């Protein structure tokens, strides 16, 4: 398995955890809505915190999606897994630096 495959696998695990956060917050929110309807005044604060968890997970997913797109673009343009390029071929130092600035 390549380093890129390892990174993508780790990212997928992180996304799965974010999805679990979304599911748990949704389930808890639905329970709290029922409690709020029954007069539980503390349920509203829990619902608000649940929505904050959902927003955090969505922001994380968006950020990771952007990074995956950058990773795929860099890997697809020129595979860097074949060792150093010959003089005058491949990436020069400025292009390599640009990969880290993206």
Please write the string of helix (H) and strand (E) elements: HHH
Q: Show unreliable segments.
A: none
Strand content: under 5%
Write down the domain tally.
Answer: 1
Shape: rod-shaped
Largest beta-sheet characterization: none
Q: Which percent range fits the helix content?
A: over 70%
What's the alpha carbon Rg, rounded to whole Å?
22 Å
Global structural class: mainly alpha
Cα-to-Cα separation, first versus last residue = 25 Å
- Please provide the count of β strands: 0
How many helices? The count is 3
Mean pLDDT over the full residue set: 82
Structure description:
The chain is an all-alpha fold and 102 residues long. It contains three helices and no strands. Helix 1 (3-37) packs antiparallel against helix 2 (43-77). Residues 79-102 are annotated as: Disordered. Residues 88-102 have a biased composition (Low complexity).
In short, what is this structure?
This protein is mainly α. It has helices spanning 3-37, 43-77, 93-101. The longest helix has 35 residues, at 3-37.
